[in-house]
Structure of DUF6036 domain-containing protein:
Amino acid sequence: MPPDASVRREFLGALAEIVGRIAASLHGVAPVVLPIHMYIAGGAALHFYTGERVSNDVDAAFSHRIALPEDLEVAWRDADGASRLLYFDRNYNDTLALLHEDAYDDSHPLPLPGVDNAVLDVRLLSPLDLAVSKLSRFSGQDREDILALARHALIDAAGLRVRADEALGGYVGDLARVRNTIDIACRMIA
């Protein structure tokens, strides 16, 4: 069952606090490099598109290498009053996921309260690129996330196949396993 509006609001507040801390750490950065773009993937992005899952971590990549501040976790309460923790995943690495070369250009802006997008421009991978990014690992959670995007009519099998096949063009090595997961994902959606 999708989380209610209060969970979404509290999650958004926790994310805004983490992102605000990152933005504050950019004070004094040369204006020529601003804005820094932050691209959110994973469960946090999925939450904003579907509301079906509340992530505990924020997977994100940046347009520049930045020195992240220390305190990037926020405690918050869900609708039942249970304590939750949202943290920035410092181990996330977008080079290990299948990612289309235009994924960042096609990302969607996510305005956050208190965050100046002229300093830190926060963006979500598009639903299609989010689904493509889940094809490399293709865990049970990744499969469920892809199906959630399809249930909400944010992706379809034909579009996923085209975008994933285009993304494969930028990869080297034995791609047989990834091609197989593309086939499986498209059958699941269809």
